[in-house]
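Researcher: Here's my situation. A collaborator sent me these components and asked whether they could plausibly form a single complex. I don't have experimental data yet, so a predicted model of the whole assembly would be a useful starting point for our discussion.
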Amino acid sequence: MIRVPAESPGPFPDAWRYCVGTGRLDLALRRDYQDSLALVRREIGFGHLRGHGLFSDGMGIHRPYTHRGARHVHHSFTHLDQVVDACLAAGIRPFLELGFMPSALAGGDDTVFWWRGNITPPRDTAEWTALVRATLTHLVGRYGAEEVRTWPVEVWNEPDLPQFWRDADEDAYHRLYEATAHAVKEVDAAIPVGGPALSPGARGWLERFAEFAERRDVPVDFVSRHAYTSGPAQHVPFGVHQTLAPAGRLLDQFAQPRRALAGTRLAGAPVHITEFNSSYRPDNPVHDTAFHAAYLAPVVVAGGDHADSFAYWTFCDVFEETGIPTAPFHGGFGLLTHRQIRKPVYHLYAFLARMGPDLLTRGDDHLVTRHRDGRVTVLAWAPVDPTGTSPVPARHPLRLSVPLGARGRGEAFVRRLGVDEEHGNAYAAWRRMGSPRSPSPHQLDVLHEAAEPARSHRRLPVTGGRVDLPLTLARHEVAFVELTRVSDETPPWWDERRLLGRDPG
Amino acid sequence: MIRVPAESPGPFPDAWRYCVGTGRLDLALRRDYQDSLALVRREIGFGHLRGHGLFSDGMGIHRPYTHRGARHVHHSFTHLDQVVDACLAAGIRPFLELGFMPSALAGGDDTVFWWRGNITPPRDTAEWTALVRATLTHLVGRYGAEEVRTWPVEVWNEPDLPQFWRDADEDAYHRLYEATAHAVKEVDAAIPVGGPALSPGARGWLERFAEFAERRDVPVDFVSRHAYTSGPAQHVPFGVHQTLAPAGRLLDQFAQPRRALAGTRLAGAPVHITEFNSSYRPDNPVHDTAFHAAYLAPVVVAGGDHADSFAYWTFCDVFEETGIPTAPFHGGFGLLTHRQIRKPVYHLYAFLARMGPDLLTRGDDHLVTRHRDGRVTVLAWAPVDPTGTSPVPARHPLRLSVPLGARGRGEAFVRRLGVDEEHGNAYAAWRRMGSPRSPSPHQLDVLHEAAEPARSHRRLPVTGGRVDLPLTLARHEVAFVELTRVSDETPPWWDERRLLGRDPG
Amino acid sequence: MIRVPAESPGPFPDAWRYCVGTGRLDLALRRDYQDSLALVRREIGFGHLRGHGLFSDGMGIHRPYTHRGARHVHHSFTHLDQVVDACLAAGIRPFLELGFMPSALAGGDDTVFWWRGNITPPRDTAEWTALVRATLTHLVGRYGAEEVRTWPVEVWNEPDLPQFWRDADEDAYHRLYEATAHAVKEVDAAIPVGGPALSPGARGWLERFAEFAERRDVPVDFVSRHAYTSGPAQHVPFGVHQTLAPAGRLLDQFAQPRRALAGTRLAGAPVHITEFNSSYRPDNPVHDTAFHAAYLAPVVVAGGDHADSFAYWTFCDVFEETGIPTAPFHGGFGLLTHRQIRKPVYHLYAFLARMGPDLLTRGDDHLVTRHRDGRVTVLAWAPVDPTGTSPVPARHPLRLSVPLGARGRGEAFVRRLGVDEEHGNAYAAWRRMGSPRSPSPHQLDVLHEAAEPARSHRRLPVTGGRVDLPLTLARHEVAFVELTRVSDETPPWWDERRLLGRDPG
Amino acid sequence: MIRVPAESPGPFPDAWRYCVGTGRLDLALRRDYQDSLALVRREIGFGHLRGHGLFSDGMGIHRPYTHRGARHVHHSFTHLDQVVDACLAAGIRPFLELGFMPSALAGGDDTVFWWRGNITPPRDTAEWTALVRATLTHLVGRYGAEEVRTWPVEVWNEPDLPQFWRDADEDAYHRLYEATAHAVKEVDAAIPVGGPALSPGARGWLERFAEFAERRDVPVDFVSRHAYTSGPAQHVPFGVHQTLAPAGRLLDQFAQPRRALAGTRLAGAPVHITEFNSSYRPDNPVHDTAFHAAYLAPVVVAGGDHADSFAYWTFCDVFEETGIPTAPFHGGFGLLTHRQIRKPVYHLYAFLARMGPDLLTRGDDHLVTRHRDGRVTVLAWAPVDPTGTSPVPARHPLRLSVPLGARGRGEAFVRRLGVDEEHGNAYAAWRRMGSPRSPSPHQLDVLHEAAEPARSHRRLPVTGGRVDLPLTLARHEVAFVELTRVSDETPPWWDERRLLGRDPG
């Protein structure tokens, strides 16, 4: 039995909900997207939202035209205003990623994704920095400098990969970063700017970025990278399968920037993991499973030890990098499918959002916190086997001695929520329903119902100020348990035996 | 095993949802009430709403005044319009009960209830009929004759009880009925009028009402009575306990009017049971229990055999006959507590609302119906023991052979919802929480959560066009089961073994 | 003075609101679009919605893939379901236009519009008809045959223009039509199919289409064409100017199909004008003006004489044929701008939606109807000068003698709404504000306010059952006037002179 | 011409919106009330809400019962929680008035109002203080001490009037105050407590209250009184007429506490005018008129000079002191009628809510403020004649020289809203409609429409950094004018002459 200490060693850090990822920004114009955003904001409470495509053609910002024979560029914010208004209305702030290249400013035709984000350097740096300045200036004008200073600005995405930056040209990226960072600071020196938004495989890039920044005296207010644990994609139609490394590998990746930058000028800079997930593919069915929630639970709980934020990629399945999804469960990144069906990993985050501000203890399969009103909350998870080599048991036992209020005897009201292979698992229901590609409204209702966690409650005795809490976790279960000391208001005249139908047992 | 026939013998009648009861009409001005009404309308779909107090002072319709020395009466519809607008906005129609007496028209000071409904005859019959005519005329003007003709009009409430009609004066009631019925018909002959809204204990009243109606040639478009099964109240502070007769006694009461009126001019008249419940007290804890849902299940399923409607008394706990409730669970009549916590009996009705239009079979512990799209739905319930003399078993087994689509092999998706002593039972959770009288917002959230039914799903084989469906019901369980034939869209390339974390078992 | 007859010669036809146009269908996924759709549905009540792009890549329906070395096509309805669900939720039905070509099925690379709708014939007719059948079959399965039979299906768009159909190849269109119409009928013979959706300039196409249909015995349940009155585009950056023919030219175009088809097998077929507007350009400022409402008023009032429907192109400015709009007022087709600012022409439609079912009279500058409750409603409009050659006066007088209830004296409550150069004219306000490209939230509030019509009310005497109603219309005004006979409930004790601050005059 | 200074002498104080009055607290359970509250909160932004009846029987807090032969009291918060939750959900805080007396604790049967508030002292002071303590303790437990400390607590209402406090017994009030204030402080010493909530006619009470508080060392955190200007009621059925003193008399009353308390221990205490209006009757038609808004405008603008708050009595017509209203316009106190029709005085407040934080100048007929973004806003009002002896002119001219941005030339966008005898005046429309007692839904729509202010906009030149703003106010007009410096974004290629239908003039 694990004895949870009664004194808190400190707060449970908020890094897990600082930011979350999203599909390309113009998808934020959609109702399904906005409904999903409102839901995750209400039930999870992410602070920022980061996605690609701010400067891509679908946002319509960079608009060249000819007048009296001369080329001009108009900067238009029709879509950007709607996107940012929608975010702020939902209570979530932009984490601005500057990219990709507007086609009329692009140095080439190379694109990434089904929606063709142009990944080439600008053919005119002055036109690019004018675009950056105009955009930031507009945002400051519309939303106020005080607000915009809380929006980190990241330069480009994964420049170390040729899919995202032509030839993965490191010098070209440094040049882009330098011009861009200065352009941002010209608008308002207090707007934080950073990069280089590296992919997991980048070798030496971060060190060289630090060295470049020092050499050129370029502003870097934070550093960023991404983290994924999947192997190569094995394709099937509309999907892939991949192997996964153990989840701890994600924590290693989160920790890498602080290690790499120790001793450089960027040593103290905030580290933002601006994307993380198991698989980097939006069509890997693992994202939809109970396994996935249990796999990521220890990462989400411990990630704050290693980075200032780590952004789950992505909050919903309105996302089209490999095309428009062909089924409600298609292996998308989202915490939510289209139409707001909660996946198991959604519940992992929603459970975490119900934890208290004061950490009591943490372990391999549990996290215990306390609320200011005295409630104690437990997050517990079963072990997983991503390799398929050491199958996990059907039941995982865990027993905690939980401090609950002052010493003495009493009773605790214990509420438990759980998701596993059977519960809170709309994917399992969908498979049983026959994997309907276009579920009917009735089927959507059933899927929403199947996505609700298992719920139960009971009373346990408090002895010596403690509750002996035995938990048995099902396969791939993630459980949330809340313990509240009972203050009994049952009136003195109440006689349970007079209630009709009471259990005689 | 019970073999459910594949052919429907006919429709499952809708009498169970024709009407539902409510606390006094001016409570309909409240937001909590309107929110509750919208919820029951959406999830259950009652057609009409009947409550006391249309002419009581809280509705402010009858408004005498003096002008130039003479007494006049103004008929004012400020509240009535808001009440009826709210009902119609929720999609539910009034079932008008004409009563009680405005104090300025009353023949005495006798009142009923904490809110003092005056139960005396009018001191001026012409002023009463003017009130009736003015009210109906106003309603026809505002909502149209076509609409108002769908609103039955019932004269008074339980005149056979001295608490509700001074001295239970039968002749006086007949006079009131006659004057009132004619007044209604003067406004529009197609508005249905009826009575006499008798209490369960009325002896001979219905026969004499028929005889009176024939003798005086008075219009009677329907007859009405009430049904309850509880014994005398044993009081505790803010509550009572009572014995209950077996639920079948309710069906006897439903059936009594057709028996009593056989051979009279009213033999063919529609019979509306305008109130029914187990206990007639709004402070008996039985209303809040899982026992109550299981007790009433066979009544709600079979009631349509005996009457054209039977109105559960009442849809929500916004109801103040014995005073303002002092706790969220106080034994109120409501399907819903204040703030829309669903009670087990709410789910009984919500499950019934999901049954199909075509009856397949009915039994002591089950009802099976079919939807037009082929889904088969089962309502099943465990036996109860209201007397405390023959305790029910902890498990009640039931096994059905359910026809599902054409002959041949296949699979069925089976979805089950259930409420019992542990599930869908906010009352049990509230007791465990310590019976908080004024639950905090967090406790209200937990109670809403605890009120959700248990949910599960599985696949069962279809053999020879049938599913062998074993159901084991828990103590006091009411279960809803839906069977859908699976049309499998799993693509040919899907290989379950490639899914990470799949159960190797 | 025009004497309005007291007897109605018949109903005012509903052709004006049978259908309305929209930008490409996947824009229906946007929140701004859905909010706009809900608004026009509530305040105007269009029955159907027609737009391009059902089969374009942005809807993601046609999805080829390779499995075990063979090419297959999956038909995916992820977006289509969301689009149709959104329409039906708003209470509006699809008018399905089958087109453009999925790029993976296209016979060439030619595209139209900024969003690149492919305008080439299918490279495989069987794959095209499979796509049509699969889509209709899916819709019938999801929404029911009874529902889908109310959705007209139109084959392609403006095949007589090379921008919309490669080489404007008439035979190729006939082949496409024939294959498509048969495919639709295979799904359900009661689904109406038609075409050929001609542009205004098509010469002889309709006659040849009728002849082809007869010769090949191809089903044609309705015929369709478009109507516009603008001359060639004179370009400026992000916009055009054009001349306009007099509005009566639109009525000529509406009338052309019945004339052309007289004597053919299609003589009795319903005629749908599936697009009409003044200018065919989505960047002509005329669409935003008060002039435009007054220009179209006589067309909208009289159009029902000539066609079974005529669909305003389009209901809102979420529309991107020439790119993403760069300002809230950019000359878009919409009745509404982005963010639901009502344009003057929106009010023309909203006023028409308030007219009664019974026509009383119609004239060059007015329409008078009566409601079932006796109210009389007038739509009146000032003359316009599209040519700039005969400037219109600042004031246009009109005087009507309006029958209002039975003969005799009394009073009328007269309510007037109007839009003109100063009122209900957000465009004028926007120009005065300095034409802000990205209005701030406060500016948007002011624009919404400026878009509200002028409102006034007064009392006029009724003499001999008639009201002498003088109306003076401002420049480009469209006015709505409602006359109600006053039923005075002022109590006898009311003495106006006792009201403090009353006008002594 | 009045030259508005360019420099602000200081902020415009917020006293006008610190608090607003309401009908008895249990009316807050109604939907109409809550809808009205949400509206005034959104458009006006009152901070607190004060009403009678917290301890009256309709709130059901004081609940005596007998158990085992002994009398006990249960304190029940079923309604209070719903009321406070509703306020806080609307963003408005309670200003708690402790009263009237629960009937089971009352020392007598005397009541006030149609709803019978008991106005007698407690028959047991200990039971009263237990009630106060229990209620405050519950509120602190539910909403937190930090929150409840922002809710002033006022002891009783108008004890100087025998209608509100038996025999207007001053010593009995002092005893009640003392016991109550100590009970409040026992719960939390930081909760502000005060009184004595005097009526306008109280003579010497405040001075004696200060002397009593000093003598007995009783906590008094604020002092309160009421202000009205009407003469005696002249009754008609369902209404009254009264004379009114000039509005300046209200300011005298606001100023009286500071004068009276100068030199006492309460000299520095905050002064809350916890009720004010012209007439103290809820059935005087003056409340519904445009006259009323113009009459109160100078009071609302200047009141902050004299008191820390002054609460308009009341925010809506859901109010029943003289019975349930018999018509939508019945002379109620409300800023809003039932169903949220805005009265002219509502607009006075809504206009004030749009004024900027920085005062520029104030005068007899105007107030000018500036927003942080540079906009200048003007509130202007026409003179009134409450006595009927010196009729006001039909037009009231006013001319301001308004500083707008830096020196130099330019243009201003000027937006004007106004309410007067013709505009923003639903009462005038209702009279013209024939004073319908129970307006139909269509009539309600027309009344909402008629309640909208007149709106116009224009451009004026800026010369030397100033706009010459001539305003002509109509009879009883209250106008809001907003001036914004135009930043012109009209593109260089725009040629107004090319716009079809442009005014050639």
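Model: Some features of this prediction you could bring to your collaborator: The mean pLDDT of chain C is 97. Chain C touches chain B through three residues (CB under 8 Å).
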